């Protein structure tokens, strides 16, 4: 009887290790959704997709308007004007920053001044 108890106690650590492995596999299998649940979710998503497609078709059907060539040309001209404004202002800002950073106090870098002024964007 003592020999049988010893034999079983020697097997115990191996059995506990196997139990942990099998428990881990079981937990990973439980985490996988069932095929029936996946089919149900796919059906719901298909219904939602059809509903959204119908709404989108309705919206596109109601608001179909043509833009005239004159309006397109006007928008292009405005776009060019604002792009030129942006370039001019960027050049002014760069020139102004160069002037400001020429006379920095001793021990202050351009990056520190930029941050202390609360300026956004990248340092020029």
Automatic annotation (TrEMBL):
Coiled coil: 5-55
GO molecular function: double-stranded DNA binding; recombinase activator activity
Localization per Swiss-Prot or TrEMBL: Nucleus
Signal peptide: none
Keywords associated with the record: Coiled coil, DNA recombination, Meiosis, Nucleus
Primary location: nucleus
Annotated PANTHER family: HOMOLOGOUS-PAIRING PROTEIN 2 HOMOLOG, TBP-1 INTERACTING PROTEIN
The name this protein goes by in its record: TBP interacting domain protein
Organism encoding this protein: Aspergillus mulundensis
Organism ancestry: Eukaryota, Fungi, Dikarya, Ascomycota, Pezizomycotina
